[in-house]
Design goal:
187 residues; mainly alpha; two-stranded parallel ribbon; 6 helices; 4 strands; 47% helix
Length: 187
């Protein structure tokens, strides 16, 4: 919640093998494809990968997740505790929606406009591939200041240091949301 550690971006595109990936040995960040570019079962694979990374670092984290069908509860995570937001509260309680995504987009759009201006000045076409986009997003994600991340968590109602009480409350919130969801689906 301090903004000092950022999880690398995960890009979901529509094409499994974009032409721009030809002869590229490593991508700047994780990429996968889904015909509709939505996060479906991809979420589980990604969370398990991130969990392995944090487990190797001997870190324990709480990951705040939107309550939607594409984000199932995942068993057997060793380093991540998934905390699902209550239904219909995402716009107020999801830190990513409090300005982080907007800040990333501002940096990205600025860089895109600068590329277009340079291309016009050189009288070249301003084509941007998926690979170019990935490279720019990685750079732009690093440009999102720690203070923005911290402030977004604060605005969403999170404090800077999780306590045992907060973790118990998160666990209760998760249990409550799961219970409410079960009630809603059984009636």
């Amino acid at each position: 919640m301090t903004g000092t550690e950022k999880i690398p971006l995960f890009i979901i595109g529509k094409s499994a093998k974009p032409r721009c990936f030809k002869n590229v040995h490593s991508l700047p960040t994780d990429y996968t494809a889904n015909k509709k570019a939505w996060m479906t079962e991809i979420f589980t694979d990604w969370v398990q990968k991130v969990d392995k990374t944090f487990y190797k670092q001997r870190s324990q984290i709480a990951m705040i997740v939107d309550n939607c069908p594409a984000h199932p509860n995942i068993n057997d995570l060793r380093a991540i505790k998934l905390i699902f937001l209550p239904p219909n509260t995402t716009s107020k309680t999801q830190p990513m929606d409090q300005g982080m995504i907007q800040n990333l987009k501002v940096h990205y759009r600025k860089r895109i406009i600068l590329r277009h201006v340079k291309a016009i000045d050189r009288q070249h076409e301003a084509a941007i591939s998926v690979l170019d986009t990935m490279k720019l997003l990685v750079i732009d994600w690093q440009c999102v200041p720690e203070t923005t991340i911290h402030n977004c968590f604060h605005h969403a109602g999170f404090t800077t240091a999780p306590t045992a009480t907060m973790m118990r409350m998160a666990s209760l919130l998760h249990s409550c949301c799961t219970y409410q969801y079960r009630l809603a689906t059984t009636h």
